[in-house]
Design a protein that fits this description.
The chain has 341 residues and is an alpha+beta fold. Among the domains are: 38-132, no CATH class; 145-228, Immunoglobulin-like (Sandwich), CATH 2.60.40.10; 266-308, no CATH class. It is built from twelve helices and ten strands. A hairpin with a 2-residue loop joins β9 and β10 (219-228).
Length: 341
């Protein structure tokens, strides 16, 4: 038998060696697309769309067989319900566009809540990309949101139709920040003075004040807006301030561009103070005593007198009891509310 080296040409040995070298040094595959984060990208869309509110799937018993944690307080449970329940329907990784997560949200399949997103918008595309990349859960702990900042914190709108765009930034426990304006929920407490749309654009209405709120995850912040008539001419009358409360009121009135009313008469002051502090009208004797007094400090003295009366105690105990909801139904006392009081 011939030696091995004589059975294979030298060129063949070199070829085999090169092939082995190439096989041993294959190019590393391109890194897989991790897809959107369930907690950072998917959950905020569910919140913004109102899916996990108390009137929808966030209710204690859910809605139409699908339950989410209220306002996303339990992301892990939400992930399990979305990906494990109704296998192949709620999410369909083979035909992602046919997943209930998309077809219900766009109302392509009848949905009690109607369309919450539109095919092709950024929210739809994020959810679809999450499905296309395997609908994966976050591989490890995700930094929690520690604060949100709304900008601007306040504003003055000059005339009906004036606008102001809000922006919201989230701050995370690891020190990172990101713009979450498109993922926030915007609300206003006074549509008549200032409306806000889903993008955070504030539009002025009639003269007045509005508090515009932005909610992201479990955080809510607000901006104070004042709507004024366009081109309003105003000159502050600079009335004297009797105390720190007057100073605060004057500062607010200047923002609203409203001068305070003239000082009321003694008769008006006596009636208003008696009703506001004690809930009773002044007697005829109290009326005569107050009206005939020449003391320049008689108004301050009247307030001091009213504050030590039994009627003051009775009235304000009742007001605070109602505010603290000590008794919400007849003959039933809330001990927790009573202790808080």
């Amino acid at each position: 038998m011939k030696p091995l080296q004589h059975r294979f040409p030298q060129q063949s040995l070199v070829t085999v060696a090169l092939l082995l070298a190439l096989l041993g040094h294959r190019a590393a595959p391109a890194s897989e697309d991790p897809g959107p984060s369930f907690r950072l990208d998917v959950m905020p869309i569910l919140m913004r769309s109102g899916c996990n509110t108390g009137s929808c799937h966030g209710a204690a018993r859910g809605k139409d067989g699908f339950r989410l944690s209220l306002f996303g307080f339990d992301p892990e449970a939400d992930y399990q319900r979305i990906t494990r329940e109704i296998s192949g329907r709620r999410i369909n990784l083979a035909l992602t566009a046919e997943s209930f997560l998309l077809t219900k949200a766009t109302n392509a399949v009848p949905h009690g809540g109607g369309a919450r997103i539109k095919p092709g918008d950024e929210y739809y595309n994020t959810l679809k990309r999450w499905l296309d990349t395997g609908a994966k859960n976050d591989p490890g702990p995700v930094p929690a949101v520690v604060a949100v900042v709304l900008d601007p914190p306040e504003g003055v709108l000059d005339g009906a139709g004036a606008t102001q765009q809000l922006s919201l930034r989230a701050k995370y426990a690891d020190g990172s920040e990101r713009d979450v304006t498109s993922l926030a929920v915007f609300l206003t407490n006074n549509d008549n003075a200032a409306k806000v749309d889903a993008t955070g654009l504030v539009t002025a209405g009639n003269r007045g004040e509005a508090f515009v709120m932005a909610r992201f995850e479990t955080h809510t912040v607000g901006s104070h807006f004042i709507t004024l008539p366009k081109g309003l001419a105003f000159q502050w009358a600079n009335p004297p301030a009797a105390n720190v409360i007057d100073e605060l009121i004057h500062a607010k009135l200047q923002k609203l561009r409203i001068n305070p009313s003239a000082i009321c008469t003694d008769e008006e002051f006596l009636r208003r103070a008696s009703l506001d502090i004690c809930g009773v009208l002044p007697t005829s004797d109290e009326y005569r005593s107050f009206m005939t007094s020449a003391d320049p400090q008689k108004r301050a003295a009247l307030v001091d007198q009213l504050l030590v009366r039994k009627e003051f105690v009775d009235l304000w105990v009742m007001k605070w009891s109602e505010l603290m909801m000590i008794r919400t139904v007849p003959n039933e006392v809330s001990y927790k509310a009573m202790l808080l009081y």
